[in-house]
Write a structure and sequence with these properties.
With 230 residues, this protein is of the alpha+beta class. Helices cover 34% and strands 25% of the residues. It has 4 helices and 8 strands, in the order H-H-E-E-E-E-E-H-E-E-H-E. Strands 1, 2, 3, 4, 5 and 8 form a 6-stranded antiparallel sheet that branches. The protein has a two-stranded parallel sheet with strand order 6-7. A hairpin with a 5-residue loop joins strand 2 and strand 3. The termini are far apart. One of its GO terms (molecular function) is electron transfer activity. The complex is composed of six subunits: RnfA, RnfB, RnfC, RnfD, RnfE and RnfG. Its main location: membrane.
């Protein structure tokens, strides 16, 4: 009996190929995983000035050949039997004035996990910016969460109010306009922001100056990642 006519042989061939491809993909992930994480950390550090200062002030600081002092810490939150860790980046101007924080957050989107950077003012009372660090939402629909116009809706929103997603009616003070055809992605991002603010906004204030803060200054690595365990 030829291989072409043998169902058993074809099944073993499919299983063999699936195993080979699976092993190859796992090997690629293991090899590229550290590189991907290193690139995310590099991108995070590059975005922090814009997220806490805005485009114009960040550009002025760079033009003066100055930079923020950025230090990271991990905030642990225990709720309903679940412990979650948030990486928080605190930022100071060159003269030592605290200017804000950036919190790394993640959650489930429509297609896969969405990773965000949420910028907050020094008191943790207002959102200063939002950046999508990683996403795999539908191209042309959910992937519009990347667009500046949509992300810009979060800027200056109070951290003390729960944000709601509305469709086509015009967003009010505590509302976010949904992306047309991508309500789930819109709600996913807004939900991640709401959860993050509820968990960490009250733990952001830092009294130490950067010189007295014992946390090592961030150079090119991140001391902790978001992790959640039950």
């Amino acid at each position: 009996m030829s291989l072409k006519n043998s169902n058993l042989a074809q099944a073993w061939l499919v299983l063999l190929l699936a195993t080979l491809f699976g092993t190859a993909l796992a090997g690629i992930q293991v090899k590229l995983g550290p590189v991907i994480e290193a690139n995310k950390i590099k991108e995070t550090m590059a975005k922090i000035p814009v997220l806490v200062l805005g485009d114009d002030l960040a550009a002025e600081l760079a033009a003066d050949n100055q930079s923020l002092t950025i230090k990271s810490r991990v905030v642990e939150v225990n709720k309903n039997g679940t412990t979650k860790f948030y990486t928080v980046y605190d930022a100071w101007l060159p003269e030592g004035k605290m200017v804000g924080h950036v919190v790394k957050a993640d959650g489930q989107g429509y297609a896969d996990k969405i990773e965000l950077l949420v910028g907050l003012d020094a008191q943790g009372k207002s959102i200063t910016g939002l950046f999508v660090l990683d996403q795999k939402e539908t191209p042309g629909l959910g992937a519009k969460i990347l667009e500046d116009a949509w992300r810009g809706q979060f800027k200056e929103k109070s951290t003390e109010k729960h944000l709601s997603v509305v469709k086509g009616s015009g967003a009010k003070e505590d509302e976010i306009d949904a992306i047309s055809g991508a309500t789930i992605s819109s709600k996913s991002v807004t939900g991640i922001v709401n959860t993050t603010l509820a968990n960490v906004a009250s733990q952001l204030q830092v009294t130490d100056s950067p010189e007295n803060n014992k946390t090592p200054a961030v150079q090119n690595k991140e001391p902790g990642k978001n992790k959640e365990r039950s």
